[in-house]
Amino acid sequence: TTGSGSRGLYAYTTGLGAATARMEAGTVTIGGEDAAGLRAEIRNRASEENATARMTGGDVTTSERNAYGLYASTNGRGEAIAEMEAGENGTSGTVETSGEDSYGLYASTTRRGAAIATMAAGENGTSGNNSHGLYARATGTGEAIATMDAGEGYTVSTSGNNSHGLYAFAEGAGAATATMRGDGEISTGGE
């Protein structure tokens, strides 16, 4: 898809249920601004459910500014989870973003739920300025958690200025935690 605001896989609810966008294989290529490969979104402040964008295989590529590989967001009471993990057969995914102000994995909450960006497998690379590999943002009372717990050969890389591998940002009462475990690799190349 090439239009502004395009989504490859899009799960959106204004009701009380969960929103889940899941990718296990295949290719998603997005060319527009404000676009997302996988986007899961809840827009109901009363919802207790989670918004989850999960990738276990395949390839997501975005090429314009303000774009997202995996995007999970809720203004309800549940969690927002953007995650890359290994599939049942050991598969893993690849996310590449090349525009400014873009994100490999993005999770955002505005109330009490945690914003969780987590990577256990795959490759995740950003090359624009102000672009981050894993970004978790909580503006309410929830925690912001960015975690890489991956084995050897799995990588997060950023090459733009002011770009971070793992970035947890809490604006409210919750804690912000960025954690790396395992034998994975994070590389940053910008200023």
What does this structure look like?
This protein is an all-beta fold and 191 residues long. It is 0% helix and 52% strand. The protein has strands at 7-13, 19-23, 27-30, 36-42, 51-55, 58-62, 68-74, 80-84, 93-97, 103-109, 115-119, 123-126, 132-138, 144-150, 155-158, 166-170, 176-182, 185-188. The strands form three sheets. It has a six-stranded parallel sheet, with no helix packed on it. The protein is globular.
Number of strands: 18
Helix/strand-derived class?
A: mainly beta
Task: Record the strand order, biggest sheet.
Answer: 1-4-7-10-13-16
Which percent band covers the strand fraction? over 45%
- Helical content (DSSP H or I, runs of 4+): under 10%
Number of helices: 0
User: Over all CA atoms, what is the radius of gyration?
Assistant: 15 Å
What is the subunit arrangement here? single chain
Question: Can you tell me the overall shape?
Answer: globular
What low-confidence regions span 5 or more consecutive residues with pLDDT below 50? none
What is the succession of H and E elements? EEEEEEEEEEEEEEEEEE
Average residue pLDDT: 94
Terminal residue distance = 32 Å
Topology:
Blueprint: E1 7-13, E2 19-23, E3 27-30, E4 36-42, E5 51-55, E6 58-62, E7 68-74, E8 80-84, E9 93-97, E10 103-109, E11 115-119, E12 123-126, E13 132-138, E14 144-150, E15 155-158, E16 166-170, E17 176-182, E18 185-188
Parallel strand pairs: 1-4, 2-5, 3-6, 4-7, 5-8, 6-9, 7-10, 8-11, 9-12, 10-13, 11-14, 12-15, 13-16, 14-17, 15-18
